[in-house]
Amino acid sequence: GNSVTQMEGPVTLSEEAFLTINCTYTATGYPSLFWYVQYPGEGLQLLLKATKADDKGSNKGFEATYRKETTSFHLEKGSVQVSDSAVYFCALREEGAQKLVFGQGTRLTINP
Amino acid sequence: ETGVTQTPRHLVMGMTNKKSLKCEQHLGHNAMYWYKQSAKKPLELMFVYSLEERVENNSVPSRFSPECPNSSHLFLHLHTLQPEDSALYLCASSQYGVWVTGSYNEQFFGPGTRLTVL
Q1: CB atoms near residue B65 (< 10 Å)
Q2: Residues paired with A92 in a beta bridge
Q3: CB-side neighbour CA atoms (13 Å) of A39
């Protein structure tokens, strides 16, 4: 079946550091890939998405590239801020399906 | 109110209690979802309703009973829960329809209800 694996957290960085959160997936066909973010006390928000191989999703300084050859969708940001502290979820959706399959989430803490 | 709202935000209940979680979406969507978020586990999809009909039920125990009276409201009725059911329960909504290749009908999430079963 389909699955998503994220790097284990928690991840703690200093402000302005470079961020990478790894995400790999297993799926049949050609899934769409997503990153969601959950700020403290809130629900999940869509951060960025990519719907086909080599697409790059970007938003709020975050980027992720859909790599079919490595089945990966790693999240990156060049310079993190304290306000980026949150839990980040990688997810996939099979082509033509409604259901999202989530990874376990990675808690990110940015210290000033 | 805007977006997706959930009440209550926090709930503590005993194993013999009966309670209900409520979700309301103000986005004009026609599909609603219940997810369970447990510590250190992936988000688990519990139920999907589209046009007020249940279209997916992922082997959820019968002590969880969903109800979707209209496209804006979704309930999760709880009875005789177990301590391992303690979790954050998230509601989401989206527009459900015929898919166009490359399109995505984003799911919008509520803030969740933090449930503790004693």
Answers
A1: 15
A2: A33, A101
A3: 7
Chain B nearest C-alpha distance from A42 (Å): 4
Give one DSSP letter per residue of B82-96, joined into a string. Answer: -GGG-EEEEEEEE--
Cβ–Cβ of A99/B48 closer than 8 Å? Answer: yes
Say yes or no for a CB contact (<8 Å) between A46 and B106: yes
C-alpha distance from B18 to closest chain A C-alpha (Å): 25
Place of tokens 């329960």: B89
- Locate B67 and state its tokens: 């109800």
B21: tokens are: 């979680």
Q: What is the pLDDT of residues A38-76, one digit of tens each?
A: 998 888 999 999 988 999 999 999 999 999 999 999 999
Whole-number average pLDDT of chain A: 93
Q: Does B43 touch chain A (CB under 8 A)?
A: yes
Q: Does B66 touch chain A (CB under 8 A)?
A: no
| Residue B103 Cα to chain centre, angstroms | 24
* B11/A89 Cα distance (integer angstroms): 25
